Amino acid sequence: MTEPLSGSNHAEPGPPPDERAPATGRSAGARSSPNGTPLTGQPAPAEPDASAEVDFTTTAVTLGPTGRALPDLTPPPRSDRSGPATVIALCNQKGGVGETTTAINLGAALAELDRRVLLLDFDPQGSLAVGLGINPHELDRSIYNVLMERDTSIADVLVDTGVKGMDLVPSNIDLSAAEVALVGEVAREMTLARELAKVRDDYDYVLIDCQPSLGLLTVNALTAADAVLVPLECEFFALRGVAMLMDTIEKVQDRLNPRLRIVGIVATMYDARTLHGREVLDRVVQAFGDTVFHTVIARTVRFPDATVAGEPITTFSPASNGASSYRSLAVEVLQRMEQSAGTPVAAGQRAVE
Predict the structure, then answer these.
(1) DSSP label at 182?
(2) Among 184, 320, 336, 337, fewest CB within 10 Å belongs to which?
């Protein structure tokens, strides 16, 4: 028989089918026994354990009413810091947004956290005093006397609130005359700041309840303040006024008080059962982002009940949802003011028109 020529295109015959390399990728000589052990004595590759459980669980994220993940609301410890109190002005030019209620209950919640608090009523209606069981019309002296009389200081008009660690500077209808009287004063926008400077070392926080307007008294409060807290009712008309308020705050920052910051916007009178309330809250969060507090103050009959009783809700109904909400808000305020510098004012930034 003729031998095939070298270089021929004829292929060499392959091994019999039973001697070919297995399709498993092993070499031709690594044939396996029926139980899977290689006949060559080499260990078999490790096979995945089908019985092993794979943990596909993830940490659950709790979303708050603002649609964002709720933060850790552990209150920061009280520091033995020295220096003047932090002054926060509660301001909204629209009335009836829960501003006075927030001032009373936030102050009481801060006092529970071992902060010394001064409430200053800068509204001629005197609602802050009424909410704490004090008749403003029976007062001999008020914040009006502090502003108008050189020999009267804030320490002379302090009133006990019945809440440990919280004092009150009351107001009444006389304050409405101060706005007119201050017009002719030199540096009239600085009047309140000069008086507060005398007592700031005695407190950790001063909360100013501003009147629902953007007049001279409100400008005085913003000039004296380190930060602004904006209570915002979850209602369309309250939403429309936010842009105007932000514009006023920015002007005060530019011209009178460069250190002014917005500590946050707190949604009040929220009713999750209404579509309108949910839409307003969503729009506020979209417009102002993290400036909006995670805590939302819901409507509850406990608030007017506490006002009639002349107490903060934290003492009138300490286990209620309203009390819990203001305690959470107090923690958020402390976290923002004691662990950060707050949010810079930007009136045109994502403003709601």
Answers:
(1) G
(2) 184
